[in-house]
Structure formats: C-alpha cells, structure tokens
Design goal:
mainly beta; 7-stranded mixed sheet; 4-stranded antiparallel sheet
Length: 124
C-alpha cells in the first residue's frame, strides 16, 4: 500500500514563508502526477498546484506567483514553497499522487492516494 506523508505546516505571520514536503512510500510502485490541495474552514477543497512526472506545473490563480511546486523523482517527494503568505491561505493542505504498481504500470492503470493533511495557519 502506497502512503503519503506531509510535513512542514505550522503557524506563520502574513508575508512569511513555509515549505511543505510530501513523501511517498511503499513497494514496487511508480508515481505519475503529484499535487497539493487545500481546504479552508467553511470552504470546499480546492486545487493549489500540480506537477507531472515530466515537470509540467499548474497553479491556482490565487497562488500563482507566490507558490512553487517541485519534485524529486528519486526520492518520490513533492514540495510546495509558499511565499508572501496571506490570511486567506490558512487551510489544511493535502498531498495527492497518482501511481501504478507492477503490471498495472504496463497496462497504464493508475490509482490515487491522499496524505493525511498538514495545517497551515497564517496570522495577521
């Protein structure tokens, strides 16, 4: 079973920065796309950023220019560098990944896994 473990959340003042990490672990798997999502109090879960296995990125308009997603394929890890944080960024941030295992990879069959979430609180 593939698992995702997030870290790096915490309390930060508006204008500050945080760096989130998410590492995938398991046996005989291959990660395809990875991404970050967030859910603020009273709001729906929303896309923050995604990155493909080839390094192509996509960002929500609300974070474009402030957040940067990156990955280390050798470590099966994705990062989210968050700069110029605003109170509106306060949310639980969830890591997501699409992966395949063994013959599923050969057949291009992918599964989805989510991390447990890490809380980011921006004070003002």
């Amino acid at each position: 079973q593939v698992q995702l473990e997030e870290s790096g959340g915490g309390l930060v003042q508006a204008g500050g920065s945080l760096r989130l990490s998410c590492a995938a672990s398991g046996n005989a798997f291959s990660i395809n796309a990875m991404g970050w999502y967030r859910q603020a109090p009273g709001k729906q879960r929303e896309l923050v950023a995604t990155i493909t296995s080839g390094g192509s990125t996509n960002y929500a308009d609300s974070v474009k220019g402030r957040f940067t997603i990156s990955r280390d394929n050798a470590k099966n890890t994705v990062f989210l560098q968050m700069n110029s944080l605003e109170s509106e960024d306060t949310a639980v941030y969830y890591c997501n990944a699409d992966y395949c295992v063994r013959f599923g990879c050969l057949a291009d069959r992918y599964r989805e896994v989510w991390g447990q979430g890490t809380l980011v609180t921006v004070s003002s």
